[in-house]
Predict the 3D structure of the following.
Amino acid sequence: MEVDHPTSKMRCLSFLSFFVAITVLARVQAAPLQIPDLTQCEIASASAAAGTPLTLYFNCCLPIPSTPMVDFSFDKYQTVQEHIRRPAHTASEEYIAKINKAYKLMKALPDTDGRSFKAQANLHCSFCNGGYPQKGISGNIPVQVHFSWLFLPWHRWYLYFHERILGSLIGDPSFSLVYWNWDDQVSGGNKIPEMFTRVNTSIYDEKRNPNVQPPVVVPLAATTAYNQSESIVTNKNLNNMYQSIVTASTATLFMGGAFRAGTDLSNSTVINAPLGGGIENGVHNGIHYYTGDPRQELLQNMGNFATASRDPIFYAHHSNVDRLWNVWRFDMPDGERFDHTDPDFLNAEFVFYDENGQLVRVLAKDALDSQKLGIYYKKATSDDLWINYDPPAKTNVSAVPAAIASGVPYVGESPLNGTINIGTNFSAIVKRPIEEKPSKSLEVLARPQPRTAQSIWAHSTLFLLQERTETLWPL
Ligand code: C2O
């Protein structure tokens, strides 16, 4: 027989409301990035990440169209034709003429038009270099679409609209960007694509590194010298690809860590980005570094975020980054990998101009499936070479005495309990876990997330050994 127990029911109810309150509180504290108020533009700045201090200032304020912002929907932005992006070094003369025409028309639009090349470049500058404070939070914290999980979806959306604008300017809705296949160490993708080197064309930029012009292979890491034998550079490039993508087996390791409303990354730089993912901090940055012109302040154009997208090669570079996101998701030997699922990732908001010059609000989650956006990549067979790369172990015991002899302070057997002065470089032996690992498992040296900006340096010297890579990141 059923008996009513009013007291236990009430207890249940009060427990329930307690949990609801906790959940609501947790949701209030975390929130996704919102679109900033575009009337609140500030002067953007870019600073040297290392070496002689230098800061340059840029007015990257965006034109505000008279028509109100619209929300993206797959219905409204139906893909009439597939956009198939191919490797830049295989482009036909016909295609090269077409893309030049499209950029010529884009460059001819007035700066007040969101579709203009100037406004397109400023989208990147303003959301990367402090052009707009975040909305809906207290304090003046800039929007920053680098150095975190925002990096991949923001740049995918950026290319999506950029490509649609170019296509509409030449009346070709199937127009597609090309990808600079810089990871291809077999069939020539690893040089600046010839189509971008033709002086006086609209996809040429004179502010590029004169030392890494074809046939010089572009190194994928700033630490790789460009002027060594080609086989050394290509081998290091394969290793860098492997490190940036294959060993980055989790969403955080590959895409980057959490950026929520109020996250302040104004202290992050290309050489100190604790929340940045492997693809961004690794090979992506390497290409920016080596394409930018060392004769220009801050390696303009490609070498700093404020000016990078003034070079049309930027969009081909990022098409490859975008392609590699898919390769990471679906083509790794250990099976499918997964994007972040945190609601603050999925619901992060961005704003772009569409092919009518209208502002469009988009969400990160609608960029996760590139095919749904009509974007396809021609398969690059050269991927297999770095996917199956077998990296040599980078550290061994005999390296330690050499490091100490060269003056690097050495901190014990394991740095976990050492006290290290802020800013000190050091080397350390980290013990590998003793338990047997399944043969597919990898070990990685990871650093715990710093709690405050001040502790970044202190914490960046501490590493925890997780289950991943046998190739060690430099300490
Ligand atoms: Cu927004 Cu390659 O940088």
Observations:
- The pocket of CU-O-CU linkage is lined by residues 124, 128, 146, 155, 284, 288, 305, 308, 318 (CB under 6 Å).
- The mean pLDDT is 84.
- The chain is about 30% helix and 10% strand.
- The CA atoms of residues 309 and 356 lie 21 Å apart.
